Amino acid sequence: MARRDVESRYRGALLGRVWMFLSPLLMLLVYTFVFGHVLKSRWGSDQDTASFALALFSGLLLNGILGDCLSRAASVVHGHANYVKKLVFPLEVLPLSLLLSSLVNALFGYLILMMLMPLLGHPLTWGVLLLPFFILPFLLCVGGLSYVIAALGAYFRDVNQIVQFFLVLTLFLSPVLYPLTALPEDVRPYLALNPLTIPVEMIRSVLFGTPMPASMQVIAYFAASCLVALLGLGMFLRVKDGFADVL
Fold it and tell me: pTM score, two decimals?
């Protein structure tokens, strides 16, 4: 289902699967122009535009996974009504397929990022091999949230509107568009509650040598992600028998 979902995005397009590479590259160029040249944003006074663009892009790719999964999860049950009504089908696969589909698109983005880094003065290190381990707890968290939103979205159409507001909030209350050091120290621990904050900081630490989050924060995030994944799946399995009645 994830493969079909990825293919359906580009089916009929003139460039076809080329968009899997072209879309993240265009996004990188647009954000570089807006934030790097127009707004002249920087992580530090000595950082050049190219370095800022790469650091920004690394966080936006994670935000893309979160936004794509949660925004589509709100309507995923209604979008597959035939599976709910007429087939003996494991409905818990639906949110999972959204996550895998979003991950595939993000992987192409990270591939482009790692191709550009050496060209722009940021040589890759062996630390990039740790990226899958740093992304894993983020995927668990997003998967759990997707199950919760999919379950609620089947019963309440208003969930989609709430999710859109939540996604805007998570983006601007995370270190995707700015560094944590730009905030007062007493505020920074609260941003760790954002599902984007810890994984964005870990990935930038591996790729660009920025400070790694505190070990206790990393452990707490991993434990919380596992808990969210289990609770989300448990909630979905508990209420899925009623989906046919509301569709």
Answer: 0.87
